[in-house]
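Our preliminary data section would be incomplete without showing what the modeling component actually yields. Below, a chain of 295 amino acids is followed by its predicted structure, encoded as tokens that our downstream tools consume directly.
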Amino acid sequence: MKNDFNAALIKSALLHLAIIVAFVIGGLLKPSKPQVMEVTLNASNKPEQKAVEAVSVDTKAVEKRINELKKQEADKKAAEAKRIRDLERRAANAKKKREAEARRIAKLEKERIRKEKEKKKAEAAAREAKKKQQAEQKKAADARKKAEELAKKRKAEEEKLKKAEAKRKADAEAARQKALAEKMMQEQLAAEAAARSRAKQAQVLSEVEKYTALITAKIQRNLLLDDNMKGKECRLNLRLAFNGLVTQVEALSGDKQVCEATIRAVRRADTLPVSKDKAVFEQLKNINLTIQPDI
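Predicted structure:
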């Protein structure tokens, strides 16, 4: 009978320990108000009476607690899945932004290379214009030299005829020769002056074309392009100071968007190429340009 009593005490102690472990685990998963479970142990004074009469456990409370723990675990998994989806979505958006930025940088680099090519083309045109100018100057110098040689030849022939004239015509011939020499000199001077004027005019026109091309190229380099500008143009008036500073810019006609972008490009450039030659600058200080975006 004593052994039965000891066995009942051991069973009761183990049951208490199992209940305590269950509550500890539940408390670690999510703190909550513990459910009270009552365990009643009745021991009889009589050796033959059972040590444990009843152990009552609120099974509904235990099931409710278990369901709460399951729901908490499911909610936790759902929240973690949502967090992972949000991270994946943000990573995908970031990747798209990086790819878009890479495309934009590639487009800017392509535009820079195109403008660099245009600059080289304009410089080559300027060199060709200068070469043409030098050729025209040489041509004018050769013509002047030929005219001088022709004048000398004519004068020698006139002198030869003068010596052949009779003495009686000496005074008249001398006067005639003098008048002829003066006339020839005037013609020669006039021819030289005309040649110099043509050379200077050609030089000025060549320089004006050169600097007009340089001004247009610089404005194009500072022009921010848009696909909507394709096939459109703007005609504007520029007024420049002697050092190339833009004192006034005004749109005369053309597409409004292109004109606004062109005016911004001029202001961004601040100063434009101008010649130190006064005659050339006079042609450049107030000019009209037509800008057509190269798209």
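The radius of gyration is 53 Å. DSSP finds five helices and three strands in the chain. Preliminary results of this kind motivate Aim 1 of the renewal.
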